[in-house]
Amino acid sequence: SFLKPSTTNTPPTPILLLTDARDTTNQSLADLLPEIQSTQTPIYIIPLGSPRKQPDLAIRLSPDQSRIITGQQTTLRTTITRTGNTPQYAEIILKKNNNIIKRTRIHLTQTITRINDIITPTAPPDSHTLPNQTAIADYEVQITPFPGEQNTTNNARHAFIEINNEKIKILLLENEPYWDTRFLIRALRADPKIELTTIIGLNNRVQH
Question: CA torsion angle for 193, 197, 201, 207 (degrees, to 10)?
Fold first, then answer.
């Protein structure tokens, strides 16, 4: 409607068009040219953006387990994503409870780079936990921004792991132990999350 010819003698108002140059209607611009020319309306087009992706480094952090027992290990997984023309080398800093525990210079050869760290989360020094209470271990990974990086809000991420002092209590009763019982007992005792109590009987089976 704004392209309708003016019914007065006043000159048409110029139109400033900001565009990202992306076509969402699949309509040919040639169909619009006669209508635009008939109104004699000056249109000034300013394209925005660029076909090139903005250079950026982004990082993500996730533990395999968000809740563990004291002394238990888990894997901390770091994912670095490259966008655009970024440097091939970057420094990664890993912190636990606000203290640096690892500093690594890595070669970013692909769009996505993954780093896995086996960790044993511990509570912060100022955290005093009693039995059956939990503490929170705070892990943070940072990637050093490269010169001229526009978005640095995605250059650091946190992961919080809950540490519980209470173990899973299991009572195992067996009157006629066999090899499978011994195997089960060894497997349960090897799990740091389990507190196992076993009662083994050596009497003969009584038939009723």
Answer: -70
